Amino acid sequence: MGKVTGFLEIDRQDRRYAPAGDRIRHFREFVIPLSEEATRDQAARCMNCGIPYCHTGCPVNNQIPDWNDLVYKDEWQEALRNLHSTNNFPEFTGRVCPAPCEASCTLNLTDTPVTIKTIECAIVDRGWQEGWIVPEPASTKSGKSVGIIGAGPAGLACAQQLARAGHEVHVYERWSKAGGLLRYGIPDFKMEKHLIDRRVQQMEAEGVVFHYDCEVGVSVPPSQLMGRHHALVLAGGAEKPRDLTIPGRDLAGIHFAMDFLPQQNRRVSKEPIPANSVPPILAGGKHVVVIGGGDTGSDCIGTSVRQGALSVTQLEIMPRPPEKENKLLTWPNWPLKLRTSSSHEEGAEREFSVMTTKFTGSKNGQVEKLHCVRLDDKLQPVAGSDFELRADLVLLAMGFVSPLHEGLLEWLGVATDKRGNVQADTADYRASVDKVFACGDMRRGQSLVVWAIREGRQCAHSVDQFLMGSTTLPR
Ligand SMILES: Cc1cc2nc3c(=O)[nH]c(=O)nc-3n(C[C@H](O)[C@H](O)[C@H](O)COP(=O)(O)OP(=O)(O)OC[C@H]3O[C@@H](n4cnc5c(N)ncnc54)[C@H](O)[C@@H]3O)c2cc1C
Ligand code: SF4
Q1: How sure is the predictor about 2, in pLDDT bands with cuts at 50, 70 and 90?
Q2: Mean pLDDT calculated for residue range 338-346
Q3: Which domains does the chain have, with CATH numbers?
Q4: C-beta of 450 in contact with ligand 2 (< 6 A)
Q5: Whole-model pTM over 0.90
Q6: With a 6 A CB cut-off, is 455 part of the ligand 1 pocket?
Q7: Cα–Cα distance, 282 to 302 (Å, whole number)
Q8: 3-state DSSP call for residue 5?
């Protein structure tokens, strides 16, 4: 703990956003970093608690007080080494993590948690700027080969750990580039994609081989990979979207969020939109309704606003959460409370406790209206509360049910749990089929980037143990 009285003397200060009027004109990141001096001051606020709740609040168990202290003492390179010892990709989490660590910080009891995510991002961004982040190839090879299906954060973290342990690692990815939902779901204004490219370059220099445009179970038979590798890791995400099967669902202009968002991300990076995808979906000049209140819905709002939507309304079936949590009941856990994203601030209307009962449209089959009803606190319709909403484009962002079962999972015959995810526990990440492992959203269901990184790392530990009989990889 660098400065004993830091938390008493220094106010919390966090990164700011560029003004909404400016940032909606482009798709680039708009978070303004703190200066080096301000970051150091913020790190000085950490109290190095006897029980650091932030350790367990953070899914990768980042050693937060340690690197806060190192930043305070101006030992940035050592802070980076410490950070990388628990997190392969802090530049991803430093941008898109919801920061459960800050919810569990002791200073959050007075609503002034240490700006942990900002400090994490500053450490790793500085590491890249200074050239401290370089490939770390294994000094000896194990002679074992691992196939990883899916290049999202779980597959990437698993691949990097296993390559550094000396294994030959091949990553098979259906899309043309690595990153999974980090690249194709999360918009560039939250995280620019060159950050993924440079990690991929680092991993290639460490020996990881990427096979793109390669859908295992469709263009590549799983039997080929089972024969080629000593172990196979399933990291294919949870891609089956939750649908809204109400009258009018088949009208034109109603799309899943994940048909809409990847198109825009590909436009930004000038990657061709695949020929087999739905025709271009654009919000410009339209009244847009987003159904679903999570991260995906929020990303649909920010993307629609940037495309020039006339209006954006977000509907959430659940009641409006409280503005503030009751700390004595919730701390140090992640509280249910109203969260307003940067996209919400860019001009969306939000409606809570609303259920859509049907869509109606024009004679030529284009959606024109949503028919809705308000719900009471028991989620029952309130009599006489029906209303209509105009919509030219409806985006369904109600979450994801499970991984896709057709193709890969059916062929392998792996058991699934009652939610339809690949069955494997977090003790060893082993699926029901010999030498097959599973991690990330494909195992745990729709989740967060930081959980995917944790599972990828822990799964690598298990695979290494399985291949070699012992392992020095951390869990
Ligand atoms: C729009 C959106 C916004 C989000 N925003 C946030 C956020 O702000 N913060 C946050 O923490 N989390 C966010 N999430 C959640 C987060 O992105 C996921 O939890 C995380 O990416 C899961 O990582 P994963 O590696 O398990 O799976 P994924 O990222 O889904 O990657 C799986 C990869 O496997 C590939 N694949 C699947 N099947 C095959 C196959 N048969 N053959 C070859 N390849 C295959 C897919 O193409 C994909 O690239 C968001 C999700 C969405 C959809
Ligand atoms: S990964 Fe997320 S939870 Fe962990 S320290 Fe970073 S922001 Fe906090």
Answers
A1: low
A2: 96
A3: 5-130 (1.10.1060.10), 145-239+401-468 (3.50.50.60), 243-398 (3.50.50.60)
A4: yes
A5: yes
A6: no
A7: 13
A8: coil
